[in-house]
Amino acid sequence: MKTESILTSFGEILEECIEGKTKWGIEYKKTCTLAETENPWFVKTFIDKMLSSWYKILNQENISKWLDNKEPTKKPKNIGVISAGNIPIVGLHDLISVLISGHNYIGKMSSKDSILPIFIRKIFIALNPEFEQKITMTNSRLENYDAIIATGSNNSSRYFEYYFNNVPNIIRKNRSSIAIINNQTTDNQIKKLADDIFLYFGLGCRNVSKIYIPENFELNKFFENLFHYNWVRNHNKYANNYEYNKAIYLMNLTKHYDNGFILLKEDSGFSSPIGVLFYEKYHKESVLRQELDIHSDKLQCIVSESNKDINFGETQFPQLWEYADGINTLNFLLNL
């Protein structure tokens, strides 16, 4: 079976997992329990959301568009992949890219996300036993690699750049995502924006951590349309972060707005703490765009009504051809 066909079958199994009726669904439910025990941020609601986003794009049409008639390599190499553990199976796109390009995958799992990748590997091996030799997951130091794909913080990226400078590599750093709201932005768009803000408790680089609003924008309108996510306040780790930041702002007399489950603070930075959303006012969007262009290397996603940006509610649902940090992983792998 060609890898493209395996990917469509993989997507179908992911759908089975969420439905929970087949043997995969039963095992998936147990896996989710273990994953949340390992990392309490990984609630099943959000793991389901991640799998749902994948099975919806893993169809033949999307895969063909992504590959664009590219052929897998005839000289497989060992690709070391270091994944972050901020959101569930965040490194799945890298795994799929390595497999579809014909290489061998050696994954250094995050201590925060070691349960779900093993489950994903099991599915691939069930679809093609050859993947048992082509997919390696480890908690140990990477060895015998010919190229590296590593995702981490700005601090760890400096280490990665030094340590892996002798092999071809993609090193990803911290990035943030922002949204531009104007006076024509509808209630429904803000409700969709809530997904961009709250999915995975805001821990992903594609999560919106800052909004830009017109000078006369009514913040009550914004808060009212986030209310369907007020349940995050019942999550212990999220609530602890929210309460901690609230206490700091109150003690320091820092101006902020509070709707009971997220704090809104005016700030020039891009990356807000958990439980906090930064905002900044703008006068002219054209001037704002020029300022954002200067910081393009710090931004993963821009959400707005513009056709060149990402639609409200879609930051956590990228297509196969939308790459982290704008670096084409597939071309990198096929050109090794």
Distance between the termini: 24 Å
Number of domains: 2
Uncertain stretches: none
Strand content: 15-25%
CATH homology-level superfamily of the largest domain:
Aldehyde Dehydrogenase, Chain A, domain 1
Helix content: 40-55%
Count of distinct strands: 11
How are the strands of the biggest sheet laid out side by side? 8-9-10-7-6-11
What is the CATH C-level name of the largest domain? Alpha Beta
Radius of gyration, in angstroms, nearest whole number: 21 Å
The DSSP helix count reads 13
Task: Assign the CATH architecture of the largest domain.
Answer: 3-Layer(aba) Sandwich
Mass-distribution shape = globular
**Which structural class best describes the helix and strand composition?**
alpha/beta
Major sheet description: 6 strands, mixed
Mean pLDDT: 96
Q: CATH topology of the largest domain, what is it called?
A: Aldehyde Dehydrogenase, Chain A, domain 1
What is the H/E order?
Answer: HHHHEHEHHEEHEEHEHHEEEHEH
